[in-house]
Amino acid sequence: xxxxxxxxxxxxxxxKTNYQNGQLHQYVFEVREDASKTLVKDAVEKLFDxxxxxxxxxxxxxxxxxxxxxxxxxxxxxxxxxxIVTLAPGDTIAVFEGVK
Length: 100
Fold this sequence. Notes:
Elements: H1 4-7, E1 8-11, H2 15-24, E2 26-31, H3 37-48, E3 52-60, E4 63-66, E5 74-77, E6 80-87
Antiparallel strand pairs: 1-2, 2-6, 3-6, 4-5
C-alpha cells in the first residue's frame, strides 16, 4: 500500500478551480496514476481533517505542443490523473485559501 502523502502530488490552482472552491466546495488535486477514488478520499480526509462527500477522477491525456522556433518539431506533454474532491459545506482546505 502507498503512503497517504504519496497519493496527492499537488493542488491544481486555475481560474476554474478557484470558482469551484468558492461556490461548489470542490478542490482539485493531481494524483498518482494508480490512485482510486477510495484511496484519494482517505488521503484527503486524513491529511486535511475534513469530510469528503464525493470524489471524481479524470485521466487527462497527453498533448502535443509545437516548438516556436522550429514549427516542424513538436514536444509531448505527459498525461496525468486529477481528482475533484467535494467537501461538506462547512469544511475548507487552507492550502487554497491564500493569504489571510
